[in-house]
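BUG: 3D viewer hangs when loading the predicted structure for this chain

Environment: internal workstation, default settings.
Expected: structure renders.
Actual: progress bar stalls at 90%.

Input used:
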Amino acid sequence: MILDNLWLESVYCSLAASKGCKKAIPVIKSRAIIKGGFIGKKTTLTMIYEWIGIFKLGTKILWHYFHVLMLRPSFLLFAGFLSLLSYFGSDCHAEDWWSPSVSYQKVVDRAKQGSPYYQGLLGIYLRSGEAGCVVNLKLSKQWSQAAARKDHPFGNYNLANLAMLEGDFETATRMYQDAALLLQRRASDGDPVSMYCMGEIDFQVIPTNVPRALELFKKAADKGYPQAQATIGALYLKGLPGLLEKDHKKGITLLSKAVRSKSLTARFNLGMAYYNGDGVSKDPLKASQWLRIAERQNFSEAQYTLGLLLLEGSGGIEKNTSEGLSLLRKAASQEHQLAILYLKKREGTGGTMAIKPQASNDATRKTYATDDRSTLERARQHYTGVGKTKDYETAYRLFLPLAQGGNSEAARFVGLMKLTGQGTARDTKSARQWLSIAAQKGDQVALRLLDEYKSLF
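Structure tokens produced before the viewer hung:
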């Protein structure tokens, strides 16, 4: 709305006149003459001085009324209401930001109280195992959906990550895009979690923006966010040509800080650093120790990686086929795509056996895993009844993963049990295959059995 200057002057002077200002009356008359088109004999200089006087007078009158209005209780109440409305209507508040003093319990409590920020953050924690919590993808999805329903970007961001784990890249891309705009705004405001989330999107979602992603990771790490420290720390160990100089000291320092904050990302990345020899001396045994800590938090990537290491049994890690396959099945039960493909290729199944996640308690958790030699001995004892109660089903259950792992003696026992129907269903075709595998690996007993029972095959 554009107001006429002369009309404004008349209003100001009328207000002054109503307050007893006699000087304003002739001004009102002169303005009425001007409005009516009769300027009279006033000079230009006189009019300029008059305008300046009117402006000063009008300013004083407005300030008077504003001062009086400010003292009224109704105005103060209204101003307070507007202030609260502005506060609660804003997208993010400093007190809702994560800081190093925020405990995991506070995240849980605030999420239960209905804070969309902490609901989304809890979803991120339960997916990535931050602050020492056990990974629970089902709960992660539920909290993320709660945040998404309130239009908080953490919700869609984490649901996109969960979709990636399931191999649904189309849904993941759409949800990343939905989250990106709000995340970028919150990151610009200084929220460290938003910085990390936006950095991850820039780093891996096409079209990528790696330079910006690195800056966001660094800023979030500087603010103490452990997941960012773990990520940029691992990147420093490898370096990115032309973008990030390799810096082993800085990388290990950042990873160590994040490990002290019980970051699962840091524990896993440190394990991989020891496995690959990035920034530290290559040490597969030490790598497996860190991977075990990450695995106890039900982290599928750690389960998959450690499972493969145990199946290979190299670099000082004792081969353990049974535990290795068990870990791969755990990873597959959480939709780990590489674990599913590996088990399909090896066993002809998806390996999606339901496995209850184990609680994370590093101090008291007991491990009953044994190496292949011990497992083979136990299987023999159950088969023969020497040293243990004869139990063909238990013997078969112990022999089978060893046979699948390439143990010739176990393959011979599986073939024999398939042939006789002891501990498993009788299947002569399968028996011949297992005995042939054992014979090809040089097992003379299997070779003799194939010759003796060739009429059955």
